[in-house]
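Problem: given the chain below (627 residues), write out its structure.
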Amino acid sequence: MQVSQVNSNIPKVNNGRISRNINNKNQSFKGIGVAVDKFALGVANAIENGGLVLSFTLQDMLGTNIPRPVMGLLRNKKENKGKTNIRFAAKEFVREILTGPSMFIIPAIMLSVAKKFVGKTINVPMKVIKSLGDIHANQALNNAGGVINKQEFIQNAFATIIKNAKNEPNISETTIEKANELAKLLTEQVNKNGTKEAIKQISEEFINISKKYAKDAAHTNFTTVKLSDNTSVPVKDAINFITSYADDVVEKVRTSNTQNIEELIKNITNKKVISRFAMNTIMFAAVMTFLQVIPKLYNKAEGKENAGLKGLMKEETLNDSSLNDIKPKENKTSPSFGSAASFANKLTSSGLFGKIVQGAEFEGINVSFPLLLSVMGFGIILPRTVQAKDKYDREEILRRDVTTCAVMCFAEKALRKWFSKFNETKSGLVLAAKETGFKTQGLLKRLFDYSRPIKGVKLLSSDQIVSNYSGIDNYKDGIKGFCDFISEQGGDLRKVFSLTEESKLLVESVLQKEGASLSSANNNTITSILEKAKNSDEVKQLIKLFEDKNNPWVTKARTLNARFTALSVIVLVPVLLGFFLPWFNEKTTKRKFTEEHSVKNNDTNINNNFLIKNNSELFSDIANFTK
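Solution.
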């Protein structure tokens, strides 16, 4: 598109809306595509807001709880004279319906009870309690010499967050004024039952401050705040943690008769840290204990024999002890604890012990990734294997549960990253955060970072996408800061600014003045020219296009990241874990059982109706269920 007489051809923006009549083909999809993307975005947002508990529950319900009992009914149907396998289906149902929910319902109940007896900080991470305790102890008295109240503590905590975001050596007067303003807003809204809206407003303020003062905006997560040098948490969580601490600790200190306020705060903080550790331990023990019981329950629902072999051999041989080669094993643990103050310091330190216990913390009712792996390994796979009925049952457990763990903990997360990489290349948008220097790393290191489930490359959350792709004038260097973010993270500015016809025309206008073209310019050229023209009408109007938090770039990036999440939860996990794995287990057990017992027993114990059809199809078996 040739643009001459730029001033007359600049599209006009009224209240952030483009009034120029241009047929924009890229801003939306038509028909079913729109519905599919809206559905995908809804699923992804629900999972993100609900955390691991919702993600795991959805995958558990759709991938195991529903399809596996159905496949259990079909188990050996041909060999069992067309009868459905009620016993095996009952086993599958009891096992799956108890396992997933118990991992989250048990901690939820325990936390709810503990809050009433121990206090709200029982739901605050140990390092955060320690950091808030330090903030409290450092400013325990107000200007009048009295012990601070809840609002004054919140002001101090907010001032610390702003100071850290602005990289100030000391808290400035402007920081104090801003912190007081936000603390007052929170207090007023809490009193009016408007806490959620207040948290949203305050979060946006913190994000804008972080974006404006970030030393390295291209690699900064604006949606996290620093409470101390080694404690960063999501901004919305930080506000909730601060109010929980204020409700739980500040008032106790204020109403005490102790002269040494700082010492009292440290003592209370240490006790709260240890209480939090104890609560994590108790919740973990409760979940693990219940998981040990689940195999007994589903084995009881199944009956005495291995129902997975029903139809493959005569009933009187199902209880043959020769089929069972499994001996129970005992596990013994003996935890030890140190003194209160030193133990609290160890729990919140950056040493090996501190990292282990912090990594194993519950995140509300959600479990952390290390905790999930522990539960999967020692709470699910190990007790099920130990309590298996026979070697065939044990082999099926290992195939099913190890694969399920690998898919839900590793493969699905890695695939999401690779899918985002494909979408990044196609769209030019940045969809995942990479560490500083990622582009200069070797190929193997980059591949490794894309394959790691938690660390390495990290998909941008919805909040991060909004913070990066809206209000771009809030970047420290304005339009240049935004362009640097796209370039440093491996995006393509040509594709980014070509997402809408409006932005494409505006950028093309600026580039043509310098003899460049959007179709051929590289990221460096586009960045330098836009920086040079930052005070022009074109760049000002370009920035206005990014003001809305639901602008086309935000919507596009969120949708692209959401597609694979929805596809995984709705299609891939159910098909692989819910239907294919049970089908594969059934066929493998049939084959091995036939090979072993047709030779061993000279076919005398094999059901005459049993016939293996290696070419039978999974979905034909499912279809037979309705006949």
